[in-house]
Structures are given as structure tokens and as C-alpha cells.
Amino acid sequence: MPRYQAPLREMKFLLYDVLEIGTYSNLPRFSEAPQDVIDAILDGGSRFASEVLQPINAIGDRQGCKRNPDGSVTTPKGFKEAYKQMSDDGWMAISADSEYGGQGLPRIVALAFAEMCSSANMAFSMYPGLTRGAYEAIHHGGSDEQKKTYLPNMASGKWSGTMNLTEPQCGTDLGLIRTKAVPQPDGSYKITGQKIWISGGEQDLAENIIQLVLARIEGGPEGIKGISLFVVPKFMVNKDGSLGARNSFQCGGLEEKMGIHGNATCVMNYDGATGYLVGEAHKGMRTMFVMMNEARLGVGMQGLAQAEVAYQNAANFARERAQGRSITGSKAPDKPADPIIVHPDVRRMLMDCKAFIEGSRAFAYWTALQGDLLHVSPDQLVREKADDRMALLTPVIKGFLTDRGFKAASDALQLHGGTGYTREQGVEQFVRDARIAMIYEGTNGIQALDLVGRKLAANGGRAVFGFFSDLEEFVSANEGNEKLKPYVAGVQLATGQLREGTMWLMQNGMSNFDNAGASSHDYLQLFGLTALSLMWAKMAKAALEKEGRSKDGPGDRFYADKLITARYFFDRVLPDATSHLAKVKTGAGPVMALSADAF
Amino acid sequence: MPRYQAPLREMKFLLYDVLEIGTYSNLPRFSEAPQDVIDAILDGGSRFASEVLQPINAIGDRQGCKRNPDGSVTTPKGFKEAYKQMSDDGWMAISADSEYGGQGLPRIVALAFAEMCSSANMAFSMYPGLTRGAYEAIHHGGSDEQKKTYLPNMASGKWSGTMNLTEPQCGTDLGLIRTKAVPQPDGSYKITGQKIWISGGEQDLAENIIQLVLARIEGGPEGIKGISLFVVPKFMVNKDGSLGARNSFQCGGLEEKMGIHGNATCVMNYDGATGYLVGEAHKGMRTMFVMMNEARLGVGMQGLAQAEVAYQNAANFARERAQGRSITGSKAPDKPADPIIVHPDVRRMLMDCKAFIEGSRAFAYWTALQGDLLHVSPDQLVREKADDRMALLTPVIKGFLTDRGFKAASDALQLHGGTGYTREQGVEQFVRDARIAMIYEGTNGIQALDLVGRKLAANGGRAVFGFFSDLEEFVSANEGNEKLKPYVAGVQLATGQLREGTMWLMQNGMSNFDNAGASSHDYLQLFGLTALSLMWAKMAKAALEKEGRSKDGPGDRFYADKLITARYFFDRVLPDATSHLAKVKTGAGPVMALSADAF
Q1: Which of B184, B337, B360, B515 holds its CA 20 to 30 A away from the CA of A183?
Q2: Segments forming the whole domain that contains residue A530
Q3: Distance between CA B310 and CA B2 in Å, rounded?
Q4: Residue range B273-325, pLDDT digits in tens
């Protein structure tokens, strides 16, 4: 059976040494989060993930969810108890606002905890994850009354939340939505239609389920400009906050899937259900995007989190499994065979995973920190920069971390040989679970299109030029540092390639939009690799500063090892950028030349 | 539900126009295979694959195999009938020798049929596939009496065959085998031990199961040099060919796996079972390698075959599913949305699949042709060249086709969006099934080590220098051809990169074997891409010669489309070679620097 230990030292290194979140202690939320508080949350969170969530991960995969004849859904054994404990112990409320009963801590702390939960049990952690997204949407777009009605119980997890977007005829293209909303005299709406692939649309974990539903108000504009957002509770909420009548919708079926079996993927049938408009009529997409952006960062983390747990198990296996002899002479001559970690190709897979995981974690946490600054900084310029970074980098995190996270999980399976293919070993579940992250919350193709079609051009390219400034400022601030030289050189190389790709897109993407579309996937990958080069250089810098000054003494190799992994990234991962750049620059010609019936 | 149509025109184009197998009609086997015979086999095989095997593929995945309390194994519904039909209609005997009741046709014809079966139902096709490997091993290493006893019924499929290598403590490292063989006065052996992951070790398809078992003769040398090969029939065979007593072994359990559920993966317990030595004592690995090489080419084909069927379904989905509008203006303005095949990133995934599949099919068929020439050519030099190519390229085909085949199947899933993640759609089964091909018959890491550690150095590098001659001869024979120029230039580019990587390995791999190990994976990928560049240039040449002379008239775009796909390969796939070369040249330093406990 697989194991999981939260990478606490990695997380603390990032928060304290690389991101130096202590320097923000004068800001709201951060002022509530001195190092000892964060340490306590991470340490306790780690225990919760390993001891409560991880043990029911394989069970969830095998049992899956069950829809009962009355339309109710039973989650796998142990999920209900784990959910209750998570809610009771306040784990869901880390970054929720204190006015709604949350702990009011920075989101980056909640993100670190979310990473642990996702590694320990991805299917389970989607229930609180989506609740968090729904919380944000109501927080952003809802009326004061809606906030008062729903947010406290959603903050605690007593009630859960969902997002209802997809219909059979529309996934990506939400302009095709048919679910309709008919205004009622009392200001509410009657919602009718079918939604599919609704994660947690029905379950037995929370006392109430707060559905956020996209629908078209009868007579509203066609297409995406006629879509409104509604809050549709499973049980109506009385004035005093108690639960009232059951609303008119039901789970009509569960989807059988490749993975995340512990999460209920529901067909939801709305049959004149009572809903309330969130925000303005016909402008539902705006608020839904708040929720989706939150969710996209979370989905990126899922890719990373599955890679992490798969990697941990691969590393353990590589140390334990004895097979063959080192090609440079036996390393365990007293045993029948050497542990397979002596074999260079086994190392290659482990190092690929490690360099990806640690670099991507830095990337995601750094971006999440921007999300915090966006909300709490008093400085308009800081907020603008943070907003630009968030908007620009969210699709990169979603696409890059899930593509490479799946690859890393698959490499971790590979390292196990035949054992990895068996269900008993358990690593294959991580591969199946990780696969969905490349698809939902906007396929990775949509992320790439968002990046090249929207984010690059926004505000005259302000965000992307800002990101180039981030890269260049790091280089110029550190190019005199002899010890940092190889890392700074790597950032320079990556920056040059990203600049070349960006210029190509700006020159060719406008004249023929297909050029932008055809290059978008490789451009996103190039972007991700460049972002990771900056993160690895930042980590190398922090490691060099800390090295030898570790409180764990001279025997502590953490910082020296960090530098080795950084070198690996620049030597053996970053070279992929060259291929991606070459593909970016071919344009649409070879991609679009065949007729549709030639495939 | 997924569909499958054998790519008959692609197969015929390869056999007749690219490989020109008609030019070998003066050779044995080929003389029995004029074009109308091959056409009839491919056309009939295509119907068998689509109508008999494909419909039970999803059923096999859902039902899986079941071990009964008596140790017998029940295969999924429909498998038994399909197997009987396959055997009765002679489909298993295409390339078996006529003296054992086979059709005596070239192996390349059998390979094309095997590709269809694997696309239609990979789990099913492993039963005849392994039987074929066991047939070859007995054919190669067995005594005349053993051949007479086993081969006719194995050729027809009436009896099936297996390979028993793995034990709990040894997969890759067969020197650790503990199963023992005790000589008996009558010349037979008593075999005792446990084998695991034995595909088809027990099933209800064939009347008898001929186990080939690696074991150590009591008192024999330690390690790999004391391993012998035994034939161990499930039912003893009487002198008259009738079946006798049940032998003393049993299936002790079935493995639960990520995929290929329709294939029984057995724990086999041998309890003093009667076995007969195949070939010389202690030299069992030699014969087993014959079987493994046969099987490795077949496994490479599985990677390709899963990519093909996944791609076909993705292409159909892309033409049917309407979502969004083309970014260059609607292509179906009368409909609510355009088919997604208008989107460049959807095209990218389809083109990636197509360029990989068609190039790899040419590579595998060309290599299989070498296998035929090796057996039937009267010319010693042709046989030597064929043998060199087979030995050198088998690990490349196994590693490259299964790595990229899995990636292509996963891309095909991606193209489906959320639909692809559902079991109902069925494409996710191809991804799960394809995943094993990277592992079994020697993990892809072992293939890479075989390539750099053994195949490069064999006979003073004769095979690899011969392959460079193949590349250069194509270039020099065609560089004057103006229309072929871009393709020839691509081959030259790839050749230069492979040469650089090979030189690096020769200079650095000997001084430090870890350099060879650390570079092996990327070197194999570089090798595969170079081989595909030659194949695509060969196909482009054939297409240029045929273009405009097609019997289907001027409206036939097959050859023009082939040239477009060739360009795509050189523009958008081959650039990966640059990254792989860069990684090859880093050597072991960054890969091996961490201590084992740093992971």
C-alpha cells in the first residue's frame, strides 16, 4: 500500500527562506500568521493528511460512490467521518474570512494544506476544494444577504459547494447552455435543465449542498452574454438559518470514470428548482471566472500533488527493491542484488520528478502569494503587479503542472516495473487520478488558448512584459554573484527563448489567429519551463545563503542537495524549451494543412 | 462505444509501395504471397478484428478474468468463442511453417494482422501473441521430438503457449531465479517454484497450455549462467498426440491490474511438475531471448496499435463534436457551433498522433521485413545486415513505440475532453491498456540499456555503423531529387544529431558506465526519431512517385496528404531530437550526484 509524508521541510523552506513571507507581517492576514502558527498548521495538517485522508484513498478508489434509488449518493467508507473531522477541526476554514468564522490566514497557508490533502486523497479533497471555490464566488458576486446566509456554513464545511457548468451539448463552449431560469414574483427563479459532470453534486458528507448553477434567464440574450449565475441550495434556508424544504433537483446518475472514484461525478436534473441570482443578470460568467481561476490554481496543485505522492513511493521502492548490480560495480556485494536506486536510469526518473515537483511547488506558491498580496496589500502598484501575475500565470500553472504532473506520476509508476501496474501496489491510482487534472476546469488546450489569446494581449501586454521584468530583474540583481552564475545563466537562456517565442507570437499570431492556436500548447510549455527556471534560481539563491548556516549543523545536506537538483533542472529539464520554441515557430501551416476527412 | 477500422490503405501502401515486398517474390515464403493473397488476408483480417475482437474489448475490460476455486480461470464473455474462431479459421497460423500446418507466409503479413488484433482487443490478442513467441522458442531451441509434439497444435492455436520468467524476487534480474528443476531417471525434470505475472498462464481458451519455464537445475551454476528452459505442458501429451494426465501446477491467483483486464495475469505454482529441458542445460537464456525478441517487436506494435485505435476515435470525435467557433471565422455558421476539428490545438494532437503512428508503422514493418530476410534470403550478406538491423532496432521499437504510443493514446483521450475520462466513451481503456507495454518484456529502461550497453558495441559497432550507412545511402541516392529536398534535409539533420550522440556515448560511456546508463533513455528516443525520419523520407519518396498515378484518379489525396504529414513530422516532431541530444550529453554527473537518502 502506498504511503505519504507531507514534504514539510520543502514547504517551510519555500515559505520562510524563498518567499520570505515573514517580510509581509505588517499586512492583514499575514499579521495573524507568525512562523509558529504556520508551523503548527503545517505539522498538524500533515498528520491529518497522512493519518486520516491517506488511509481511505485506495478504499475510495475501489468502492467508488453509489447512487441510491432515491437519488441520494453514498460516498466510500470512511469519507463521511473524515469530512466531519476536517470540518470540526477547522481545517477547511484556514483562509476563510474571520467575519464568516474563518481563521483569516493567508491563502498560501491554505494552499500548502490543500497540497497535502490532494496528495493524500485527491478524490476526497475535491469536496472541500470545490466548496472553497463556491465560497469565493458568492463572496465576490453575492449580495450581503447571500453572504450572510451561505458563507459561514460554507467556510466551516458544514455545507458544501459545487459548480454546475457543463451540459451534454456544451463543455468548453458555455454559450450553448440550455438550462433556463424563469423569474418568479418573489424575486427568485425556477431553474430547469440538465447539468453533467458535477463533482460532489450529491453526496452524504455535508448537511446542505449549495449548487452554483449557470443558466439562461428566459428571454435573455443568446450565447455567452445571456448566461446568469444562480445559487441553488439543496435544502432551502429558513430566515433563522435552519434548513427548510428540499429543493426540486436530483442526482440522476453517476459517471463511471478512469479515476477519482471516491468523488461523486453527478448528472444533476433541475426540475423547476428554486434559485437566486448571484450578481447581475446575464453577467454570470464574470463571477464564475472568479471561481474558475481559484479552481484552476487548485487543479494545477493536483497535478503536482499526485506527482509528489507517486514520487515518494517510487523513491521508497527504489531504495528497497534489489535487482541487478550497479554497472560501475556492486554497491551491496553482501546482498543478492543492489537496490535499484544505483541504476542511472532509475535515478533519471527520480530526478526528473524531483526537479519538476520542487520547481513547480515554488512556482505555485509564489503565484498564490501574489493572490494574497492582491487582496491585502495597501500599495496599488503591488496589487496591480500581483493581479497581472495571477492572471498571466494561472493558465500556465494549470496546464504545465497537470501535464508534467501526469508525466511524473507515470514515470513513478514506470520505476516500479510490473509492480507499478498492479492495483495492489497503488501507484497506478495516482496516474489515473492525475489524468483528470489535464481536462477539467478548462482543458489544457483551453488554458493555452487563454494564455496566448487573452492574457498576452491584456492591457497592451502589461502582464507579460512585467513577467519579463521579473526575470531580468533577477538576472541583473544576481549576475555578479559568482556562486549563482550557472543558475543565473540558465534563467538568461530561458528568458531569451521565451522572448523569442513571444515575439514570434506577437508578430504572427495577429495576422493569422491559427498561428496563435497552433503554437499555444508549446508556448505554454515554454512559459512553464521559463517560470521554473526563475524559481530554481530563486531557490538556489536561498540555499546558498542558508548553506552552512543551517541549525541542523554541518551534516545537514538539505541546501547542498537543493543546489544539485537545481543544476539537474537546468542541465536536464530546461533543454526541452528548445524543442518547444522550434514548434512554436512553425506556425499553423503544417498543423492545418490536411482536410478534416483526411484524419 | 469506440470503433475500429483497420488502416488497410496505410498497410498496403507500406507493403507494396514503400517496402515493395513484391521484389522479394523469388524468395521462399514471399513466393507464396502475391499481392492478391496478401490483400485477401488483410481484408479478411480487418473484418475479423472489427467484427469479432473489437466488440468484446470493452466487455473484457469490465468483466476481467476470474479464478475459480479449483484453480481454473474463466476469461470474459465471448473470448472463448472468438479464440476458437480465430484458430479454426487459420488466423493464428499465417506465418507458421507449412511443415507444422502453418500457411508459411512472411512474418510481416502476420505482423500486419497482429496490429489489427491488438488495436481491436489488446488483452485478447496477447493470448495468441504469446503462443506465437513460445512457438518460436521451441522451434529455435527444441528437439525434433519436441517440435513434432508441440508445434502443430501451437501453430493452429489449439494449444496455447506462455513464458514463465518472473518470480517475486526477480523480474529484470533473472539470475535470482529460485524455481528449481530436479532431474528424473527418465530424462524429465520435476519443476518446483512460484512464477508471477504469467500472462495466460491459465485460461479456458485452449485445450492445452504449453508453459515455457525458466528454472535452475539442482546443483547448476549460480546466477544467470545456471538458468535452463523447460517445456511444461498443462496436460501431458501421449505418444499418439492425445492428452494425458494433468501436470502438477496450478494458477494460485490472478493479479488485479490497471488495464488489460481481459488477459489473465497468473501466479503459477509449480509443485513437482513434469518438465522437459529445451536445448542445453544452463543455457536457457539463449532460447528465451529468441522468444523475448519476437515478443519485444510485438509489444512495440501494441504501443502503436493502441495509439491507432485511440487516434481513430479521437478523429471521429473531432469531426462530430461541435463546440466553439474557429478563431479565423466560423466554418459551420448554420450550426450552433463548429466541429472541434477546426481548432488548431485539436489538429495538433491529431497530427502528432498521425505522424507518430504512420512513421512508426513504417519503422516496425521495415524491421519485421528484416526478420523475414534473415530467415529466407540465400545471400549471406543480406542475412547479416538483416540480423544486425533486427538486433539493433528491436529495443528501439519496443521502447520508442510504447513510450510514444502511450503518449499518443493519452493525447487522443485529451482531445475528447471530459468525455474521454468516462468509461462509457471507452478511450480511457486504450490508455490503461497501453501503459503496460512500456513495462513488460523488459521495461523501457532495460531496452535503453540493451541498446547502449550491448547493441552499440556488438561486433565492433557493426550494426550501428550499418544503420548510419542506411541513412547516408538514402541521402546520397536522393539528394539530387528536388521534390524530396526537405525530407532528405530532415534525414541529414537527424543523422547528424544521432551521430553526435553516438560519438559522445562511445567516448564517454566506456570511461564511466554510468554515463551510458544516464544517457540511455534519451539516446533511445533520439534513435527512434532518427529512424522515423528515414521512414518518413522513404514514404515521401514513394508518395511522390505514386502521386498523380493513383488508380483512384486525380481526386485521390492519399499521396498528397502523406507528403503533408511527412512535413509535419520534420517540422513538429523531429525537433524533440535536439532536447534529447542535449540530455544525452550531460552524462551521469547531474543524475547521480544525490545520495540515495536524499530522495
Answers
A1: B337
A2: 443-592
A3: 8
A4: 999 999 999 999 999 888 888 799 999 999 999 999 999 999 999 999 999 99
